[in-house]
Specification:
alpha+beta
Length: about 100
């Protein structure tokens, strides 16, 4: 199960959290031979799972993400009431 570092998300809702940052660090390496920008990117454990699921189609990442989310809801957030929604949010360039 991946390590998580929950982050409080502010917005027009009662409570919101992200399980962790998506990217920890990204260093520009310059363009490749086709002229596309290349980066050396370090992702959080959750960010790596999301990347594998979303961009590589790796369905084996989903159970690990579900387990991390379940653990957070049960142990950290201590959810007692029904959850109204779980929404995926794209990574931002902000320093949350």
């Amino acid at each position: 199960m991946p390590a998580i570092n929950p982050i409080v998300l502010k917005g027009p809702w009662r409570k919101g959290y992200a399980l962790d940052r998506h990217v920890v660090q990204s260093i520009y390496l310059g363009p490749d031979s086709a002229g596309r920008d290349r980066f050396d990117t370090t992702r959080s454990a959750v960010g790596e799972l999301l990347y594998r699921l979303k961009y590589q189609g790796d369905q084996t990442a989903a159970p690990e993400l579900v387990a991390a989310l379940s653990r957070f809801l049960r142990d950290d957030w201590k959810i007692a009431a029904a959850i109204e929604a779980i929404l995926p949010a794209p990574p931002c360039n902000c320093r949350c």
